[in-house]
Design a protein that fits this description.
It is a single chain. This protein is mainly alpha-helical. The chain folds into 2 domains: 63 residues, no CATH class; 36 residues, no CATH class. The protein contains 6 helices and 2 strands. The radius of gyration is 20 Å and the shape is flat.
Amino acid sequence: MLFRRLGILDRLQITTTSVHGHRCSLRRVSPRNSKSFDTACLQSVSIPVAIGLIVIMWPILTKLKYETIGAVFLSRRILIHIALTMSLNWIVGLLLMLGLA
């Protein structure tokens, strides 16, 4: 009942999550059938799951107001946040992954 009232993208998110859960549980139950799941994979990434996730994320990414990007970078506070995020992602994260490897 509730599933039918949801929009198509909300239904796609629920369906993708449930398919992924079923796939993981089936791999544990019958490991010899795992080769049949890998037929639609590219570099160990399932192509149907990747397409479904891109379709789910597309509306979120398109709600960005591109005309306001220039005004955002004029704020010093935002620039500090961007610099902090970039340094955490590209320096601290890189060193952490290097240390863990």
